[in-house]
Amino acid sequence: MKLINGKEISKSIKDEIKAEVEALKAAGKRLPKLVVVLVGDNQASQVYVRNKERGCQYTGMLSEIIRRDNNCTQEELLKIIDDLNHDDHVDGILVQLPLPKQIDEQAIIEAIDPTKDVDGFHPRNIAKLFLNEEGLVPCTPAGMMAMLDAIGYDLDGKEVCVVGRSNIVGKPVSLLALARNATVTIAHSHTKDLPKVTSRADVLIAAIGQPKFFTKEYIKEGAVVLDVGMDRDENNKLCGDVDFEDVKDKCHAITPVPGGVGPMTIALLLKNTMKAYKMRG
Ligand SMILES: Nc1nc2c(c(=O)[nH]1)N[C@@H](CN(C=O)c1ccc(C(=O)N[C@@H](CCC(=O)O)C(=O)O)cc1)CN2
């Protein structure tokens, strides 16, 4: 079994970005800037946002975090986004999800200038992904493709099963796999006989948010398993959707949690910020 090390792969992506930022600095150019908006006090979101800030610091990119409490209104947030859209020093805008219930997430996503939408969630960027056009691609799905590239795994003609149909992960990663000529199945909570469906897959992408759900009867011998889960086990320890210990000897390659897909999300966010900077000229 090959362990797909997200920490290592993400570091090499961050090092490439760092070199690009150093070249910009040496040329006396303006540096790329990411602004993250964090609303509320979700503990996990605080960690992810801190990691995003650290990622920017590592590469030398500029970053700013705008924090608002749980009572922030939709109007207040829309005003923040409008200001950032018009700020020429800002290349990337990211609103950390989830948002408090009084705020309509989709309205917020749609308010972000698509050229600064480094999450790749704006309908215009989703349309580009759908049409296989160049745009800003959601970070977690793009991170998984970068992991497959890093281990030299070609999706052409392979059976990929994505379990989970979220707008952030399941749907976009299915489109990316399709663009690489994979045969894609999207399974979800209404899928009948899930083990039969998943055990046909050369690549299983687990994105359902249920701790250690996927045991070895769900896995094809020699499969590649990408675990997007960020769950807590019975001892409150961080784990994925896949029962790593149970499946590891059946896989060709597998991502751990932590240290797998998560760090790739951050690296691809930095890559998108650099891309947005370059696109804006
Ligand atoms: N606006 C967005 N919100 C959210 C996204 C997103 O892509 N854009 N995705 C997730 C959370 N997320 C990024 O924001 C994210 C999740 C996990 C990690 C990560 O590095 N995880 C570590 C473990 C961290 C820990 O100790 O808890 C790992 O897997 O090794 C990075 C980013 C929802 N919201």
Describe the structure.
With 281 residues, the chain is of the alpha/beta class. It has two domains: 29-115, Rossmann fold; 139-262, Rossmann fold, CATH 3.40.50.720. It is 42% helix and 17% strand. It has ten helices and eleven strands. It has helices at 6-26, 43-59, 74-85, 105-111, 123-131, 139-150, 170-179, 194-198, 244-247, 261-280; strands spanning 2-3, 33-39, 62-68, 92-95, 159-163, 183-187, 203-206, 223-227, 231-232, 238-239, 251-254. The strands form three sheets. It has a six-stranded parallel β-sheet. Strand 2 (33-39), helix 2 (43-59) and strand 3 (62-68) form a beta-alpha-beta unit. Helix 1 runs parallel beside helix 10 and helix 2 (43-59) crosses helix 10. It starts with a strand and ends with a helix. The mean pLDDT is 98. The ligand Nc1nc2c(c(=O)[nH]1)N[C@@H](CN(C=O)c1ccc(C(=O)N[C@@H](CCC(=O)O)C(=O)O)cc1)CN2 is lined by residues 47-48, 51, 94-97, 119, 139-140, 168, 230, 238, 257-260, 262-263, 265-266.
